[in-house]
Amino acid sequence: MFELNNLQTTGTTVIFNITYPTKIYVDDDMDGQTIYAAIEGDSAVKKWTKGASEGLQVGGECFYCMGVSVDKEKNVYMSSPGRSCVYKWSPQTNITTMAAGQENYPGMESEHLDAPEGIYVDGNSGTVYIADFSNNRIQKWEKDAHNGTTVAGLSTGEGGSDHESLARPSSVWVDDETHVVYVADSANERIQRWLYNASMGDTIAGGSGTGDKLTQFDQPIDLKFDNDGNLYVCDRLNHRVLMFKLINNEPCSPTSTPTSTPTSTTTSTGSSSFHKMTMAMVTFSILIWIIM
């Protein structure tokens, strides 16, 4: 855990002795902070309540577990690339059900997934957005649906590096109000933004090839936003987390493309919460990396 207002601070270990953790979800509510971790080595999702020294497994096996998210009813969603599906565990019933895909049946048809990784759950509607890694697309799976809809990338599962395509997407984040989709497009070394119902995305970070410069990534595998609209990217093979600070938040047309400028001194001109923004041009500036 790092204090974001003190960039010189050292991290505090809050979870330890876990084998190959891949994703985390932090749930802050009136009952205190709970951390959920997808743990590849244990093929499971475990949760830690505040102050706990040991994690408790939630749900059943999640083979090669690569993603975790939680909705407002505390249902836990977990993605299993090894089973080509997303599971949903209910704390009320202690029953695990299928939320997306067909267990042990990978494919590129709309009812299938192939090695799903990062997931994002709309806490209000229960809609699940899935980084369908081997199908090079983001699938939107509404609650109780039997198939998904492609909202980023090509529905045919073909990968590519143009603005219509993705290549090995590993993580997805969605603005619940505007339904804008953000993707860690890992094989293309970039973060893509897809406006609602858009047929192509635009690059908001990276896209300058593989490397360790502040404008480059080497396998970006996860992304998150804070309430001020700042973007955090886990840059896997560069062993760092990059923060892109929001410096402009203006209305935009569907053809506008945000830019990233490598600098460590910036001023944010957007005053509203990122979660409450309507369609906006998001201009980022790289602030600093947190982990080396």
* Known CATH architecture: 6 Propeller
Overall mean pLDDT: 84
Distance between the termini: 14 Å
Q: At the fourth CATH level, what is the homologous superfamily?
A: TolB, C-terminal domain
Helices, by number, come to 0
CATH topology name = Neuraminidase
Fraction of residues in β-strands: 35-45%
Q: What's the CATH C level?
A: Mainly Beta
Widest sheet, order of strands = 17-18-19-21-20
Task: Say what oligomer this is.
Answer: single chain
The biggest sheet amounts to: 5 strands, mixed
| Number of discrete domains | 1
Alpha carbon gyration radius: 18 Å
Secondary structure tally: strands: 21
Helix content: under 10%
Order of helices and strands: EEEEEEEEEEEEEEEEEEEEE
Shape: globular
Low-confidence region ranges: 251-292
Class per helix and strand makeup: mainly beta
Keywords: Glycoprotein, Repeat, Signal
NHL repeats: 107-144
Pfam families: NHL
Biased composition (Low complexity): 253-272
